Amino acid sequence: MTLQAVIFDVDGTLAETEELHRAAFNAAFAEAGLDWVWERELYYELLAVEGGLARIRHYAEAWRPRDLAMMEHAGAIEALHAAKTAHFLASMEEGAALRPGVGRLLSDLRGSGVRIAACTTSTREAFEGLILNAFGFEALDWFAAVVTREDVQAPKPDPAPYRLVLERLGLRPECALAIEDSARGVASARGAGLDVVAAPGIYTRGEDFSQALVVLSDLGEPHVPFEVLAGDPGPFSWVDPDALRWWHAQVGAGRGAAA
């Protein structure tokens, strides 16, 4: 089966945005007069909850129930999340650093006949902010399908987001690969029938990526190859369309042998 599309996660996969998200949460808390501070260790725990609004609510329920009661009465949780989003978008205007190999791979895929898609639990506004600031307005047209938090009721690790991407692409899962940075994302993609290349980010390096085809330090560059964390990368030292096709073909051969 020919590889026809590559579906990218966004936060932590295209760019190390989680620290920007954390700073935006803390800025919104301070602006609202709350004494909440999400340090790195706490934020790592909170990342188990997908979506910023749900993350705020979960934190308040677990750590600040008295604050939660007042905020729900005033309808302040949604306003707090909106303020966080505004702070995040403002930080994006300064530019988020893309992870190694991301810009090159997107450029290579555009000329390869393999379509590009995105599947993220961020808002569409946050996704577009990242793409616009990293690549320019025209880059939004690079993506044949985009699924964001607004599009599904059940976020990752539920397979619904990836199933919707495949539906919008008009593809069966064996015709595509996903690129993810977290175990939750890998589980979501695998649940939708997709095979996955994993490149853990700063918050996800200790997670279980045993469901991924290959686990890499990043996507690599010709002059700075990726480090192989697990799996067989074959003859490749950086991720490009040929590497993705090769990995996809190995899986396809395995399926054929098992049939």
Write a short abstract of this structure.
The protein has 259 residues and is an alpha/beta fold.
If you had to describe this structure to a student in words, what would you say it looks like?
With 259 residues, this protein is an alpha/beta fold. The chain has 2 domains: 5-16 and 98-258, 3-Layer(aba) Sandwich (Rossmann fold), CATH 3.40.50.1000; 18-92, DNA polymerase, domain 1. It has 10 helices and 7 strands. It has helices spanning 18-31, 40-46, 52-63, 65-74, 76-92, 102-110, 124-135, 160-169, 183-191, 241-258; strands at residues 5-8, 115-119, 143-147, 176-180, 195-198, 214-216, 228-230. The protein has a 7-stranded mixed β-sheet, sandwiched between helices. Helix 1 (18-31) packs across helix 5, helix 3 crosses helix 4 (65-74) and helix 5 (76-92) packs parallel to helix 7 (124-135). The protein starts with a strand and ends with a helix. Residues 255-259 have low confidence and may be disordered. This is Haloacid dehalogenase superfamily, subfamily IA, variant 3 with third motif having DD or ED. GO terms for molecular function: hydrolase activity. It comes from Albimonas donghaensis.
Per CATH, the superfamily of the largest domain is HAD superfamily/HAD-like
Label the structural class: alpha/beta
The gyration radius over C-alpha positions equals 19 Å
- Terminal CA distance reads 14 Å
Q: How large a portion of the residues is in β-strands, by DSSP E?
A: 5-15%
Please state the average pLDDT score.
Answer: 92
- The number of helical elements comes to 10
Give the number of DSSP strands: 7
- What's the number of structural domains? 2
CATH topology of the largest domain: Rossmann fold
InterPro entries: CbbY-like, HAD-like_sf, HAD-SF_hydro_IA, HAD_sf, PGP-like_dom2
Protein name: Haloacid dehalogenase superfamily, subfamily IA, variant 3 with third motif having DD or ED
GO molecular function: hydrolase activity
Pfam family, one: Hydrolase
